[in-house]
Amino acid sequence: MKRAEELAYESIIEMILSRSYAPGDRLVESELAELLNLSRTPIRNVLRKLAAEGLLEVRGNKGCYIPQLSPEDMAMVFKARAHLEGKAAMEAAYCRMEHDIDTLKELLAKEKNKYEEGDKKEYAAVNDQFHLLIASMCGNKYIEKFTRQVFWRSGLYIFYFDRFYVPSAPDEVLRDSSKSISCIQHAEIVNAIIIGDGNLAENAIRSHIYSTYSKMVNRVPYVGHIVGINHNFV
Q: Which helix (H) or strand (E) holds 117?
């Protein structure tokens, strides 16, 4: 049986993924406890964790909120991701372990399967595991910590603006993993890590993050006036 905090963590993430909350909404501790049939203590601990990871914002003594999203913030978040994850991938290529490589390969296979099934929840979970595993492989706890924070913050933009997660998106974008840019790019990142080429791994993951950003840039409200910000992104 899952611990209360683990259940609360997964449930709140799923609520955000399923767009139960909009940017700017407050997550009320007592309401979540009642909804999930849990005590307020695990809910409180999870909200604090999500705030520390950058997925929620704390506003004084008023509780936790889904951050307001803006094109300016999105550009900064993804640029930070590109720099941090680029360095993490470079270091991971130099200090890779066999069991880490095996896990990355398993995640690639699982990712393709979940993509073809159109299982958004599991696909998102695999994507999270993939990126955060590379961050942990780098052997630098500070790079890992800040990568996790900026990764989760960028996740808000992905959940709300990536076509894969938008409910009205046509089904065909979910089906053929051989045409999935993300699946292809993840494989390129893994191959670079396997051969121990740090520069290639860094460039591959930076290109992947930029690709994700550019897919969404015109979906974020009022983005037009800062489209040029992506010229020096990578």
A: helix 98-117
